[in-house]
Amino acid sequence: MQYINPFEILGLSNITDTANINNEMIKKEKRKLFADIDLSDNGLFKYYDLQLTKSDCEKAIDELKSIDFKEFYLYLLSNKKLNTFLVNGDCSVFVKFTNDSIFKLPEFVKFISPFFAPKFDKALLVAFENKNEIDTKTILNTASLVYQNDVNTAYKSVTNNLQNKISEINDITKNIKNEERIYDEENIEEVLTLVKEHFPTNTLNCLPQYFQSQILKIANSINYLSNSIWDAFDNTQVPNDLTGYLLTLNIGGLDKPTFEKNFAIINKKNKERIEQAKNAPVLKKWANVLLQLRKYIKEVESKSVSSISAFEQTKNLFSVSELNSLPDFANEIRIQIGYSIRSLSISIWNKHSDITNAINTINLALLVNVENDDMAKFNQDLVELQELEKKYKGVLICYFCDKNGPDDDSSLDTIIYKETYRSYIPRRVQYSESIISLPRCKSCKEIQSKGNNQYYLYFFGLLILGVIIGAVTEGSHFIIGGLIGGFIGWIIGNAVQRNSVRKYDIKDDRDTTLRNHPILTERMNQGWTFSKPTA
Question: What pTM, to 2 d.p., does this model score?
Answer without folding.
Answer: 0.56
